[in-house]
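Self-study notes.
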Amino acid sequence: MIDTSVLIARESGRPLNAALFPEELTVSVITIAELTASVHAAATTDIRARRLATLDSISSLEPLPVDAVAAREWARLRYRLAEAGRRLNVNDLWIASIALAHGLPVLTQDSDFDVLGGLGGPEVIAV
């Protein structure tokens, strides 16, 4: 499952290691929300157009929802993070939980996911 950071990297021209991408990609509803919020927050029409193009580029993907399994994984990971004295942005925690609920790795350029190491989170692949 691709994290929002991967789509932002592509939008901004940062390099991505495409060799690490699986054949089939998916996103979570959280990524849809983050990208949509960035469209609303765009300061100029040019930025808004770029962000809309990024959002449109994933319109054919069926986003994975927050369901009961993901909610339980979220609660478990949140507890494990607190127990370990670590923190993770709430949206990133949802993305990780949705990926875990579906048995998928998270492809990301966001090192924030590193805090999940050793806590039973999803596989995190830095691209």
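Second protein, same conventions, sequence then structure:
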Amino acid sequence: MKNIEEIVKKKLNKNKIQFQSIKFLAGDASNRKYFKILQNGKTKVLMNNQENDTSIIEFIDKTKVFKELDIIVPKIFGSFPEQGFLIIEDFGDEKYSKIINKNNQEQLYKNAIDTLIHLHKKKIKQNFENYTKTKFYKESVLFFEWYLPLIPKKFTVEHLKKFKDILYELLTLPMNLPNTYIHRDYHVDNLFLFKNKKKTYQKCGWIDYQDALIGTCVYDLMSLLEDARRDSNNKINIKMIQYYLENFRNIDNELFIKSFRIIAVQRHMKVLGIFARLYKRDKKNEYIIHMPRVLNMLKKNLEFEELRKLRDFLLEFLY
């Protein structure tokens, strides 16, 4: 990690940015690395990526959009996209993944859902990319390309064609729900508690939203409740889904719950593929521990009747 710190220090010095100290915070499933820097007695966060990485521009653009929508997102103090780094606000230590427990999880979930409710009541004005069936399919293919060889199981082009037909048919349901802005990676590692905020929807702050899209309103809620990093609690999930739906009387409850399961299956397949790729290609072993949990959530969702056709198709790979 010292080598990366030296690279970051050189970037700061090159841009004549003064700092008293720098400390590695965390990395994620991408190439991004986060550092805490001290400037004039105040801490800030440096987000470092590869030079000319488009995700830096996406982060800047979407920060403006979400800020206008009254979502708590980090202030940007300095942007250097060509050199692959940003200096942003330090949200502190109240990250959901650090503070969540059995006693406070329902309230933390409600805070995060209040933010979604607020956002989902807003009209879509920005031209974000759409979460299309094609994009869902391409993500799901990671399951076949990376997870199956790890088991190991083999698949053919014919398998992919059949899977595509089944998935496209399934996605018709969630795509009948209202579209909204979606974070796309709405889980405990990307959410912070702001307990002193007066507005309930501002008690949850966001990071890592550069991949945000426009898509089905069920997506972020599902990502939150069936998180790869935490054991899913069905009773709490039902309660939280109902909490969300109470604010949208125009949404058909049965359609929403079926859509929740369909999107869950798609995301869990994608995540298994991503985690397998991180392990095999990128030599990042820390995600392996979550794979049994994700596989279990995938199988549980496949038990429902609306997913029977996909379950029958996946029998030779999962069971």
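Instructor comment on the second fold: The radius of gyration is 20 Å.
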